[in-house]
Amino acid sequence: MSLVGVFILYPIAQAIYSSFFDKDLLSPAEAEFVGLANYAEIWTSETIHQVLWNTFVWVAVGSIAAIVLGFLMGWLLYEKLPFTSVASAIVLIPWVLPRVVGASIWQFMFGGSQGIINELLVQLGVIDEYIVMLGSTDLSLWPPIVGMIWRLAPLFALLTLTSLQGIDEHLYEAARMDGATPWEQFRYITLPMMRYNLAIGFLLMLIYNIRNFSMVWVMTKGGPGVSSSTLPVMIYRTAFVDFNVGLASALSMLLFVVLLVFSYYYIQVYDKVQGEF
Length: 277
Fold this sequence. Notes:
Elements: H1 2-18, E1 21-24, E2 27-33, H2 37-44, H3 46-78, H4 84-91, H5 93-96, H6 99-109, H7 116-124, H8 142-165, H9 169-177, H10 182-211, H11 214-219, H12 231-240, H13 245-276
Antiparallel strand pairs: 1-2
């Protein structure tokens, strides 16, 4: 219990305490109590509102796209097509690669005139000239989202594969004997049998995405401006670039509450699954 207090409760308490102060990282002794001013800034700052919107887009688009793509990949692996075992190993590569390595690969691919993405789009006639996507205020958030989908889809593919393998084949045989169509089998057998695993995977995806730092930081460092900044990146920049520990602590509390809510629902779903087996 003492270890829990030292390594978990004390840092949380310290962050809560710091969030009520105007505190400079380089001059912590000169901290000034400001009450709820840091939280009021979160409420009123247009810059922070932009970051929160970026975070929402990052989590929503990245998670949903990774789930859809991962589900399709898992289904194809389950169909036992040729070279399925080799494909399963290849699918794992994005997940097992170190996060910084994966982010660096995508940073290079989305580079200006040297990036393969630009070259491919020009060759296909989608664009007429190279676009500096990572340096564009309108586009800079999307390359990290693509990189995150690439990283997370394999995780959901494996979850889908193991869930499909756990469904009793006799259920499908009985359904086919009763004249059920493939869609009806999918709707009334596959989805209900997978619902809890899919829910757990979805919540895990949200938790992972909302706290992810490396993909955005390596590819864009949250720029230009805050056009690609998410909440974890904003916290880091506020604390270690702007040295504003008080505001960074308040932002950390916001992130902590959101993660606490998602974690609560994850535990609820997990306990329900455990209760059924």
